[in-house]
């Protein structure tokens, strides 16, 4: 039976599809920015030597993302022109959804989707699988190469580390979500992207700054790290 999922259900089902894959795993998403949670799952499945295919539609990967993908031995990556579909499947289940394999989408957007079981709905599952294989065939497989990570000046921290703009806690560098989880939940109650933190700091360098969700970095850091901002 086809099952409908809301935002939380989609995220949880995606995790299950990755974790329970035994033979193959297909990830189709126009945008690619993988959270630490899903990276850990894919790292583990890579050790099991699964057949993992990742098809995406935008080639502008950050160096850290490219380097991580390069480290996976079982992953084959392809770019599909004009890709808009989002589908995640293993040998038993297929998830068709509005959610990209993108950390910002998983944390901020309202999503929905359906999950199909091969055991209960083999016809629908097979139709999805055939379309996934077609997208793989028309995609251009790429060799992800190691890229030099740009070093930020006036900073001794790692390139993937940032600061919560409200409490200054060290967090993953991600201008789309410049809060720690606790402060993000507080901010989300109002959701004002222009709200400036009274005792805020720059998300990148950690220095005092009137940061907001819309402008989380000081002017100097923004100019040096424009590639981080979409």
Task: Give an overview of the whole structure.
With 230 residues, the protein is an alpha/beta fold. The N and C termini lie far apart (39 Å). The protein is 31% helix and 20% strand. The chain is built from seven helices and twelve strands.
Concise synopsis of the structure shown:
This protein has 230 residues and is α/β, with parallel strands linked by helices. The chain has seven helices and twelve strands.
Order of strands across the main sheet: 1-9-7-6-2-4-5-10
Note the gap between the termini.
39 Å
Note the run of SSEs as H and E: EHEEHEHEEEEHEHEEEHH
Count every helix, treating DSSP H or I runs of 4 or more residues as helices: 7
The coarse silhouette is globular
| Strand segment tally | 12
Helix content: 25-40%
Average pLDDT for all residues: 87
Note the main attributes of this structure.
8-stranded mixed sheet, two-stranded parallel sheet, alpha/beta, 230 residues
Topology, element by element:
Layout: E1 3-5, H1 7-20, E2 24-29, E3 32-33, H2 36-47, E4 51-56, H3 63-71, E5 75-79, E6 87-90, E7 93-97, E8 101-102, H4 103-108, E9 113-117, H5 122-138, E10 140-142, E11 161-163, E12 170-172, H6 181-188, H7 219-224
Parallel strand pairs: 2-4, 3-8, 4-5
Antiparallel strand pairs: 1-9, 2-6, 5-10, 6-7, 7-9, 11-12
């Amino acid at each position: 039976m086809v099952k409908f999922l809301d935002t939380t259900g989609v995220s949880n089902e995606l995790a299950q599809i990755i974790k329970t894959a035994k033979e193959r795993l297909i990830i189709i998403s126009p945008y690619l920015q993988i959270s630490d949670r899903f990276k850990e799952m894919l790292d583990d499945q890579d050790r099991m030597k699964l057949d993992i295919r990742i098809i995406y539609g935008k080639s502008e990967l950050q160096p850290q993302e490219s380097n991580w993908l390069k480290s996976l031995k079982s992953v084959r990556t392809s770019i599909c022109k004009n890709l808009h579909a989002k589908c995640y499947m293993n040998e038993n289940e297929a998830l068709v959804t509005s959610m990209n394999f993108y950390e910002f989408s998983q944390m901020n957007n309202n999503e929905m989707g359906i999950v199909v079981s091969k055991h209960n709905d083999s016809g629908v599952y097979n139709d999805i699988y055939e379309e996934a294989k077609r997208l793989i065939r028309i995609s251009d497989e790429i060799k992800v190469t190691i890229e030099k990570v740009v070093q930020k000046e006036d900073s001794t921290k790692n390139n993937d580390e940032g600061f919560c703009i409200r409490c200054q806690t060290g967090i993953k560098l991600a201008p789309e979500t410049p809060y720690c989880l606790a402060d993000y939940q507080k901010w989300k109650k109002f959701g004002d992207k222009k709200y400036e933190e009274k005792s805020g700091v720059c998300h990148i360098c950690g220095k005092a700054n009137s940061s907001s969700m819309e402008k989380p970095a000081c002017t100097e850091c923004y100019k040096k790290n424009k590639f981080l901002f979409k």
